[in-house]
Amino acid sequence: MSMCRRSLSMLVVAAVLVCVPGAIAATHTVLVGNGGANFNPAAVTVAPGDTIEWVHVAGSHTVTSGTPCTSDGRFNDPVPPGGSVVWVVPTNEPAGVIPYFCIPHCNFGMTGTINVEIPIQVPTVSEWGLGAMTLVLLAVGTLMLRRRVGAMAG
């Protein structure tokens, strides 16, 4: 592949990445009752828009938001045997810690935490403005043309 084509390919990839409005949401899996009254892992780090899936392994458990044995009403779901509970972190969720527990086992320390971190956002085309994006593309195109003309002259 020629240098010009490789540079153009990288430019297109960069332009696409800048145009994507946000990061791709991830799914985080937590095993429930794996080896006893526990959540595994006990702590997950997520971003707004991510999904958490608590998967039943053994026992009778719930996934209940709040401090141990005190629900805050955010979510409270039994984990069905052989099934799972899914919660999508709201896209407007601020950074912070969301504690949760299992109602039948909260006195035995069956707790977990969801650590919400706000990722660094790459400005979108609409935030940069179409004019700024056009200037960047023109500047890169001009540099590529100069390289090609210089290579042909030399």
Q: Looking across the biggest beta sheet, what order are the strands in? A: 3-9-8-5-6
- What is the residue-averaged pLDDT? 83
Overall geometry comes to elongated
Q: What is the number of helices? A: 3
Number of domains: 2
CATH C-level label of the largest domain: Mainly Beta
Count of β-strands: 9
Order of helices and strands: HEEEEEEEEEHH
Structural class: alpha+beta
Report the portion of residues in β strands.
25-35%
Helix content: 25-40%
Structure explained in plain terms:
The structure is a single chain. This protein is of the alpha+beta class and 154 residues long. It has 2 domains: 3-21 and 122-153; 27-116, Cupredoxins -  blue copper proteins (Immunoglobulin-like, Sandwich), CATH 2.60.40.420. The chain has helices at 3-19, 125-128, 130-153, and strands at residues 27-32, 39-40, 43-46, 51-56, 61-67, 70-79, 84-88, 96-101, 111-116. Strands 3-9-8-5-6 form a 5-stranded mixed β-sheet, with no helix packed on it. Strands 2-1-4-7 form a 4-stranded mixed β-sheet, with no helix packed on it. Strand 1 and strand 2 form a beta hairpin. Helix 1 (3-19) packs antiparallel against helix 3 (130-153). The relative contact order is 0.19. Mean pLDDT is 83; it is low at 16-22.
Key attributes of the depicted protein:
single chain; Immunoglobulin-like; elongated; alpha+beta
Quick synopsis:
This protein is of the alpha+beta class. It has 2 domains: 51 residues; 90 residues, Sandwich (Immunoglobulin-like). The chain contains 3 helices and 9 strands; from the N terminus they run αβββββββββαα.
